[in-house]
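To illustrate the input format used throughout this study, we show a single complete record. The first block contains the structure-token representation of the backbone; no residue identities are included at this stage. The design step must infer an amino acid for every position from geometry alone.
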């Protein structure tokens, strides 16, 4: 970097460094108000935030700290949490962030006490790591299992232990973010020192790696490591952190996104989103056009092409290709709440640079319909997957049991509702969200109170309760409104404007105590089609997704236990073709005539609509549907479509349901989470995807194997999916617990471009008295085992 650019960056960062002594939050996010200066006054957001504090305080801080003490060689104060072993420590980082946010927003003293206690404990761990592991541990502060084995070899460029572990950098990133957030929201200088020392360790541990080795390392999920290094640069002005942020940026995603190329098909979704957050943070700090384009294009393509009606994305944790989007309806592992948490971070970062109402439209939609919906309104449990499958349901975590990633982000989600209600830019105040709240704008010495029951009512009122100041009030004109339908009154007088929906209306004047701004926000009904599956529609009322309860039967595992897969709603899948199906040639007209239910805001019925498999349907906000099966996407067919479509769907669905009922366990080889769940072992194997399906193969004596559940059944069949047009020598063995089941030879077997499912009966003696078996695909010298696309254990 030349001297001119260095000076440019220094003067960009300098004002933020000067402000850090007073408001750490403003030193990173210069358009934000300190959380303590924005009070929630009521409504769904405040209820969710207050409930979440009670949930946070039900966790045991010593158990969350246990992995850090263990890796530092310090005596245990409590046993660590089970479930998701291998990611030990990641929730502890999220917990720190959550404590900091909730303390800053509410001044809850117990949140602060726990936060301070954890910082003191982590300081002791960092000091002990430096003493115990002088060759690699100076500054280290992680709970990654087998840290010594992993990082001592990693430092030398040996990635074997690193690759055998479960996403180590992803794990560490959560504590990086937790330490940063403690400083950011509370000004805790000890947390800042721990954070920067940890960043220095991160720079040092990769110092000897070549660029090729760095990029190879980044093929493994690593969270937002580029983001936290960029934060360290902004906190200190030290260029080494900006260099590190760029080194931790994955070119596999950065380069195509910077060129406007969407290469997300079949990629693990939440692996990619934090990378894009880091791209945007880097571009914000050094004005690099490559990073700027990559961050903004990623947001555009995900929100416009890959997001569902409630703002979430992915199925089975991956971005599906167009041809595979029907999986959104048939699968139960719908959009993951972590993805939306990180997409909101990216949205916030983009908005800070370019305060566009389009960003806030997405932010509002996702906040209400996904984030708010993932908290149980009574016990406060968190949701991992939100199925789109008609008539399925969600399951919730319980404190001190599930340690899912979405428990970690869930802890944070409900402490951030007041963060973007208001922002500022020079002398402009942006009213971004319509929520009952009060802003103490200390710089202007003015207090603004927002009174509303939005979205239950279609208006809000802003009152200047204290102060006198001139500024421009920027009132959001939501994109979900009709042209010209927004009405704003200032002290009873109409405000004229010429803006369009998805913009801001500027009101520049001297504001004084007693001024009142009334904003009328009439909502309309609209239809959104499922991406790439136009036969399925969702129904919106303004920004609110409407759903319908469809029953409470067979809600297995509604409150999850410590089971490894308990985050998946594993109850009976009801046939898709038997769900209510809407039939009309004029859906737009029908939707605009939804009948409000008297005395129940945001509840509607269909007036005159033909329905197949009819049931009594009452639409209501999806964020209020819990402990029930539901529908949020509806098959919607014209009168000319439905008969033939239903006939073919019924045959397909019958075959699928029969297979589901026979299935004991299944795995999609090549997909990250299923392979972790089934304890993948491999040597000389590789994975990728073809025809929108993942696969794994092993060559020249290599192998791969999975642990699969038998559920103590003995009459079993192994069903394996192959592609019928593979090249080369495909001669290999399939073994059960190292006993040969069969020698298979698929060389030139089919020569057809189609999938083939082959079933292998398993002798009862191979599975007798076994709860689990290891299924292994072993290649022979000079041959390839696979490609294997799908594996099932079936009842005979």
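Output of the design step:
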């Amino acid at each position: 970097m030349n001297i001119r650019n260095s000076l440019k960056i220094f003067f960009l960062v300098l004002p933020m460094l000067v402000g850090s002594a007073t408001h750490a939050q403003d030193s990173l996010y210069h358009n934000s108000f300190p959380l303590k200066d924005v009070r929630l006054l009521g409504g769904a957001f405040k209820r969710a935030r207050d409930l979440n504090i009670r949930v946070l305080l039900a966790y045991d801080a010593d158990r969350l700290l246990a992995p850090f003490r263990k890796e530092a060689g310090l005596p245990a104060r409590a046993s660590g949490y089970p479930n998701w072993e291998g990611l030990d420590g990641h929730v502890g980082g999220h917990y720190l962030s959550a404590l900091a946010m909730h303390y800053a927003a509410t001044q809850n003293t117990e949140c602060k006490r726990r936060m301070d206690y954890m910082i003191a404990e982590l300081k002791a761990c960092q000091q002990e790591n430096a003493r115990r592991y002088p060759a690699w541990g100076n500054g280290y502060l992680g709970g990654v299992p087998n840290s010594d084995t992993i990082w001592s070899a990693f430092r030398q460029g040996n990635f074997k232990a690193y690759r055998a572990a479960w996403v180590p950098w992803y794990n560490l990133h959560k504590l990086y973010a937790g330490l940063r957030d403690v400083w950011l929201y509370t000004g805790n200088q000890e947390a800042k020192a721990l954070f920067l020392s940890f960043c220095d360790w991160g720079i040092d541990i990769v110092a000897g790696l070549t660029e090729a080795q760095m990029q190879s390392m980044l093929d493994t999920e690593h969270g937002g490591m580029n983001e936290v290094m960029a934060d360290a640069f902004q906190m200190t002005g030290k260029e080494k952190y900006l260099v590190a942020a760029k080194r931790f940026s994955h070119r596999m995603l950065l380069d195509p996104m910077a060129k406007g190329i969407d290469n997300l098909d079949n990629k693990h979704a939440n692996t990619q989103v934090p990378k894009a957050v880091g791209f945007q943070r880097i571009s914000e700090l050094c004005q690099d056009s490559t990073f700027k384009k990559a961050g903004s294009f990623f947001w555009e393509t995900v929100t416009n092409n890959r997001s569902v009606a409630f703002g979430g994305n992915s199925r089975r944790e991956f971005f599906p290709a167009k041809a595979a989007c029907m999986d959104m309806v048939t699968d139960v592992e719908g959009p993951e709440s972590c993805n939306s948490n990180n997409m909101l971070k990216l949205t916030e970062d983009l908005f800070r640079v370019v305060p566009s109402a389009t960003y806030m439209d997405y932010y509002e939609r996702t906040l209400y319909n996904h984030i708010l919906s993932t908290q149980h309104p009574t016990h406060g449990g968190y949701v991992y997957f939100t199925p789109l499958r008609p008539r399925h349901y969600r399951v919730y975590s319980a404190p001190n049991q599930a340690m899912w990633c979405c428990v970690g982000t869930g802890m944070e989600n409900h402490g951030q509702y007041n963060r973007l209600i208001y922002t500022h830019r020079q002398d402009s105040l942006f009213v971004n969200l319509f929520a009952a709240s009060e802003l103490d704008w200390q710089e202007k010495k003015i207090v603004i109170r927002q009174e509303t029951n939005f979205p239950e009512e279609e208006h809000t009122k802003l009152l200047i309760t204290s102060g006198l100041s001139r500024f421009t009030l920027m009132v959001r004109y939501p994109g979900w409104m009709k042209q010209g339908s927004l009405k704003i009154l200032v002290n009873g007088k109409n405000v004229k404007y010429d803006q369009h929906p998805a913009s801001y209306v500027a009101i520049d004047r001297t504001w004084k105590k007693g001024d009142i701004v009334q904003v009328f926000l009439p909502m309309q009904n609209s239809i959104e089609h499922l991406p790439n599956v136009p036969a399925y529609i969702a129904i919106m009322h303004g920004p609110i997704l409407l759903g319908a309860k469809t029953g409470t039967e067979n809600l297995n595992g509604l409150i999850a236990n410590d089971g490894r897969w308990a985050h998946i709603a594993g109850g009976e899948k009801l046939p898709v073709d038997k769900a209510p199906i809407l039939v009309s040639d004029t859906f737009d007209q029908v939707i605009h005539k939804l009948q409000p239910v008297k005395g129940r805001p945001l509840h509607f019925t269909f007036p005159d609509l033909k329905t197949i498999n009819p049931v009594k349907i009452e639409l209501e906000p999806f964020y209020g549907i819990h402990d029930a099966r539901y529908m949020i996407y509806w098959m919607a067919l014209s009168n000319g479509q439905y008969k033939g479509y239903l006939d073919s769907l019924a045959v397909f669905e019958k075959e699928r349901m029969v297979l589901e009922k026979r299935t004991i366990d299944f795995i999609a080889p090549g997909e990250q989470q299923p392979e972790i769940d089934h304890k993948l072992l491999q040597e000389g194997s590789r994975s990728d995807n073809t025809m929108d399906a993942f696969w794994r193969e092993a060559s020249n004596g290599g192998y791969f194997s999975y642990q699969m559940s038998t559920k103590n059944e003995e009459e079993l069949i192994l069903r394996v999916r192959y592609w019928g047009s593979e090249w080369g020598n495909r001669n290999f063995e399939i073994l059960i617990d190292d006993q040969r089941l069969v020698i298979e030879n698929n060389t030139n077997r089919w020569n057809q471009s189609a999938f083939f499912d082959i079933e292998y009966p398993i002798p009862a003696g191979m599975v007798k008295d076994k709860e689990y078996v290891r299924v292994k695909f072993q290649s022979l010298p000079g041959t390839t085992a696979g490609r294997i696309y799908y594996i099932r254990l079936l009842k005979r």
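Structural context for interpreting the output: The two ends are 66 Å apart (CA to CA). The CA atoms of residues 82 and 742 lie 37 Å apart.
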